[in-house]
């Protein structure tokens, strides 16, 4: 054995031990940052012979009954926690004394059905059924239930309020108003962001107009593919979903929110929704002072900090090591204060 081998091996062992210790420290940090001041209960919401699998997030202490925030997802195959994205929001609500209820969309994580088969009315009725279920629980204050919804939920929240006169408040995060205008805005915003040429912009607009014409006359998916060629991610199921919902416009339904406090949350770097149009519509249709508008200039559509979302590495590390820091400054606290003020007004009645 070489006499030089022993010190080298000792050095390797020391380095490995240091790495193990560092991993333990980082693991403890990650675990602490992903531990929230709330209690989560997995629940099954029975409705119409089917079941919605969800999560009821309760304040850390107490038996209730707690006022409740019902979460209405945006577009896409979203599970109850939105891949843990909701947990910092639930925690801020729990600190205001509120519980939160959320569930897997149909077809997500083994849930029955397919969310792509739903209209906005279907989604609203689903939430109304979930709220009726929640009102039967002794730990929920059935007289103090409100809504939280993001993006596509902007077409769903006022429908829920119209169906359930017991809804007491709403938080609308980056909601759109008109499906067609939102799509046009999003298309232009993404083309500008990606530096598209004039030729590419013209082709994209032509493709969009073709799609709208086909939707207008109820064309099949096969007709769509024949007309545009490469479907570019538009599946048959997605075409079916868009066909059901492309005429959505929140303007007709928003007056259902007039009787309650509404917090409208808007981002400065939103490429999905024209926040100027949204704010104008909400201010036109909802009275002050019940409507409160919160602007976050440095946030993206999902209210994540713009500089964080623009870096895949930074986004991943922040989500892992400091998930509360994903959100725009003030976003979590402003919602907590809104709920606290709603609770104070409710207590005075």
What does this structure look like?
The structure is a single chain. The chain is α/β, with parallel strands linked by helices. It has 3 domains: 1-33; 39-178 and 248-348, 3-Layer(aba) Sandwich (Rossmann fold), CATH 3.40.50; 181-245, no CATH class. It contains 12 helices and 8 strands. It has helices at residues 5-33, 87-95, 120-135, 157-163, 179-193, 198-216, 221-228, 236-245, 275-285, 306-309, 312-321, 331-348; strands spanning 38-47, 50-59, 66-72, 99-103, 140-150, 167-173, 262-269, 291-300. The chain has an 8-stranded mixed β-sheet, sandwiched between helices. Helix 2 (87-95) packs parallel to helix 12, helix 3 (120-135) crosses helix 4 (157-163) and helix 6 packs antiparallel against helix 7. It starts with a helix and ends with a helix. The model has no long low-confidence stretch (mean pLDDT 90).
């Amino acid at each position: 054995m070489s006499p030089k081998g022993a010190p080298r091996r000792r050095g390797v062992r020391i380095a490995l031990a240091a790495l193990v210790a560092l991993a333990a420290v980082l693991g403890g940090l990650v675990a602490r940052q992903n531990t929230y001041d709330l209690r989560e209960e997995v629940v099954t919401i029975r409705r119409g012979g089917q079941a919605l699998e969800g999560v009821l997030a309760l304040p850390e202490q107490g038996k209730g009954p707690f006022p409740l925030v019902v979460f209405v997802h945006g577009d896409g195959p979203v599970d109850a926690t939105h891949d843990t994205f909701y947990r910092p929001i639930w925690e801020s609500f729990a600190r205001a004394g509120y519980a939160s209820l959320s569930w897997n969309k149909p077809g997500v994580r083994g849930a029955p059905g397919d969310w792509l088969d739903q209209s906005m009315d279907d989604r609203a009725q689903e939430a109304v059924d979930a709220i009726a279920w929640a009102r039967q629980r002794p730990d929920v204050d059935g007289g103090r239930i409100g809504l939280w919804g993001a993006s596509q939920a902007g077409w769903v929240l006022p429908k829920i309020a119209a169906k359930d006169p017991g809804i007491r408040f709403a938080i609308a995060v980056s909601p759109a108003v008109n499906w067609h205008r939102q799509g046009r805005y999003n298309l232009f915003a993404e083309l500008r962001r990606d530096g598209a040429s004039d030729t590419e912009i013209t082709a994209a607009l032509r493709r969009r107009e073709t799609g709208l014409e086909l939707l207008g006359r109820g064309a099949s998916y096969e007709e769509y593919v024949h007309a545009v060629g490469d479907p570019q991610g538009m599946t048959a199921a997605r075409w079916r979903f868009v066909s059901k919902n492309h005429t959505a416009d929140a303007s007709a339904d928003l007056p259902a929110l007039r009787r309650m406090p509404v917090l409208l949350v808007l981002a400065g770097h939103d490429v999905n929704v024209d926040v100027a149009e949204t704010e104008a519509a909400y201010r036109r249709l909802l009275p002050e002072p019940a409507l409160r508008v919160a602007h976050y200039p440095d946030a993206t559509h999902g209210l994540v900090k713009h500089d964080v979302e623009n870096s895949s590495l930074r986004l991943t590390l922040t989500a892992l090591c400091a998930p509360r820091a994903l959100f725009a400054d003030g976003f979590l606290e402003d919602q907590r204060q809104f709920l606290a003020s709603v609770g104070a007004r409710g207590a005075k009645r």
